Amino acid sequence: MSKRFEGQLALVTGSSRGIGAATAEALAAEGAHVILTGRDVKALEAVEERIFAAGGNATIAPVDLTEPDGIARLATAIRGRWDTLDILVLNAAMLPQLMAVSQIEASGFNKALTTNVLAQQALIAGFDPMLKKSKDARVIGITSTVATAPRAYWGAYAASKAAFEVLLDCYGQEVKNISNIRVAIVNPGATRTAMRAKAYPGEDPNTVKLPEVVAAHLVDLLGKQFPTCARESVNAAQ
After folding, report:
1. Helices 70-79, 119-132: crossing angle, 10 deg rounding
2. What is the CA radius of gyration of the chain?
3. Domain 9-233 belongs to what architecture?
4. HSE value, Cβ hemisphere, 13 Å, CA-based, for 183
5. Taking CA 57 as the corner, what is the angle to CA 3 and CA 82, rounded to the nearest 5 degrees?
6. Domains of the chain, residue spans
7. From CA 93, how far away is CA 113, in angstroms rounded?
8. Whole-prediction pTM value?
9. What is the tens place of the pLDDT at every residue in 17-50?
10. Is it the case that residue 191 has pLDDT exceeding 70?
11. Cα separations in angstroms, 238 against 184, 191, 192, 196, 205
């Protein structure tokens, strides 16, 4: 049986664990060659090993999104090996310490803005040429409920994710009439991840869905002809 993404190249940021790892494995299972990015090399290697064991293909490309030239070096390396990029999943994000807006700590806020906004724009800019060469390019941005429903003490993270959504929406509008690129923004909702555990340390992880549920939703979406600038939420039970 043919696989949905046979012969396609996918890049998943933050793919060392959680939603990113589950999505990378799901895409590989459907035939995509997946580029795994993140800072934790050992964790990336573990994901790669699982993909290989399941009969898939992947390449590790470690990167720190906060490094000044990290994304540029990543894009140059990938463009040197492949001509086109078919799928870009912008999943990597950083959760700063939760605190009142009047008390936000500058260094943490700056790191969140760098990771969640500036790095995302740099990723789009770095891979836009490869995406435009694809016959059916798709860009998926992983967002958060607080981007559109602000919550007390979540100001720093919410502001960064709101800005991320605006960037993606604008990019989708800019390319929809001049390329085959389609953009979607997906809110995974409560999911059993390390970031969720950090934000809700007293929560029973068994009460929220697994990353694999979100990954299945993303893979299903990527296999459809969704309209650009589409917005979706994953509300499925675990």
Report:
1. 10
2. 17
3. 3-Layer(aba) Sandwich (3.40)
4. 24
5. 95
6. 9-233
7. 10
8. 0.96
9. 999 999 999 999 999 999 999 999 999 999 999 9
10. yes
11. 23, 9, 10, 15, 11
